[in-house]
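User: Could you check the structure of this?
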Amino acid sequence: MKRLLVVAAAALSLVAQADTYPTSKPVTLVVPFTAGGPTDRVARDLAEAMRKPLGGATVVVDNAAGAGGSIGANKVAKAAPDGYTLLLHHIAMATMPTLVRNIPFKVDSDFEYLGMINDVPMTLIGKPGLPANNYKELSTWIQANKDKINLGNAGVGSASHLCGLLFQNAIQVDMTTVPYKGTAPAMTDLIGGQIDLMCDQTTNTTSQIEGKKVKAFAVTTNKRLTTPALKDLPTMQEAGLKGFEVTIWHGLYAPKGTPPDILAKLNGALKAALKDPEFIKKQEGLGAVVVTDKRVEPAEHKKFVAAEIAKWSPVIKAAGVYAD
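Assistant: Sure, the predicted structure tokens are below.
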């Protein structure tokens, strides 16, 4: 009898909490990568855009980086399912199951899927002193220097790492891969000439390209981009890499067991944020495309991630890379 009363009290507490959410404390948006990187920028823009549809609630960003994005994800998977701890993650939600050894959670069953946020193209960029001014010249330079090239990325499992893997596979050249603890230090070394190349999200590269701090050679979409700083860049396919297409996406998640009423409020707030003109403007300025299709629905979001897991698993296994 006593146990039944405890369970009933807990259930009533969750109902009451759903009715008042989110008034008791700030909502924490966990980003499993370092501050200043492309996913962090998306998170901070989204946090601001979700404040109003969440009744003016404070939404704070918490960076919990490491282990291919699994540390931050695990933090949310183990958090109280009350709607106050959320996860903003990118394509690594589809790569972690293969990439991370002994992953401490299950991507398909330890989270509530809230909806997709955006699609982000990638750009192939090089250090400012690189003796190539277009992709054709870059290709010639790579073939002549393939034993000496350093290809940077933001860490094992990062978007830049995945794009780099596909690029090496596509041109059949193995480069020296240099992993960093985040995009910001990798970009700093690229600008400084310590590494030669990097393939990274437009959310991180656009301003550097505009400022002529790096050289840009191609985009990874199947069509050219309309962003002013990127509109003259060829696609990888135009450059001769048939079928080469990489788009990094971001999605929003809550811990498994979060009450349905709270999930509905969060999905509604996300949809409102994705229609916010200021959020759209910021994302477009970075070359990102805000999601407007059915992937904004939780079930379609989950179905999409499952398809991405099936797509990336063989690529990662073939490369033989792991994030411990």
